[in-house]
Design goal:
It is globular, with a radius of gyration of 17 Å. It is about 15% helix and about 40% strand.
Length: about 180
């Protein structure tokens, strides 16, 4: 049996944006532990993808090893116009269960949510997984490495955190923001 210790790190796989105005981010639900394969195959087909990953230390009784794992297991993000051609391309990839949304229709994810996740991971700011929150005051960080990052303000035991949520997949992460200026939205 392994015990897991988590640290912050990012390696996002992104293909440059093609400049299409009608494209949006969508979440794809994948088979467990197939996120990297799905992301790779979509990139091979020329689609823009985002797979946020983090470094974890897995410990066994005889050894420990640092491994990269997806931040949100079973999900890959794709930036597309959601045309019939895009849908067909995505559904032809093995291990894709479908777009996240009612009856697989796909729910657009605001660019700000994807950008906030990228910013936190790129800055290597300490964070932790957090239960998904729908209610609470939305705030924006002003200044510093996390400037412009938006989320829900949370205060627990004197620690101030910003919860960044991806509504479509109901997953969140929390980053400590003690010392940062924040403004309500």
């Amino acid at each position: 049996m392994s015990s897991i210790s988590q640290s912050y790190q990012t390696n996002s796989a992104v293909v440059p944006w093609t400049g299409q105005d009608n494209t949006q981010w969508y979440a794809l639900h994948t088979h467990a532990r197939h996120e990297r394969v799905v992301e790779y195959r979509l990139r091979e087909q020329g689609m823009e993808t985002f797979l946020p990953v983090v470094q974890e230390v897995h410990r066994w009784s005889d050894r420990e090893k640092r491994v990269e794992v997806p931040l949100f297991s079973c999900y890959v993000f794709v930036h597309c116009a959601l045309t019939d051609e895009d849908r067909t391309m995505v559904h032809r990839v093995d291990s894709v269960l479908g777009f996240v949304g009612v009856r697989g229709a796909g729910v657009p994810i605001p660019d700000e949510q994807i950008d906030s996740i990228r910013t936190v991971l790129e800055q290597a700011a300490p964070w932790r997984s957090h239960p998904f929150l729908k209610i609470g005051q939305r705030v924006r960080v002003r200044g510093g490495a996390l400037d412009g990052v938006e989320g829900v303000f949370l205060s627990e035991n004197g620690d101030h955190s910003l919860v960044i949520s991806i509504d479509a997949i109901q997953r969140s992460m929390a980053v400590r923001i003690d010392g940062y200026d924040i403004e309500p939205l």
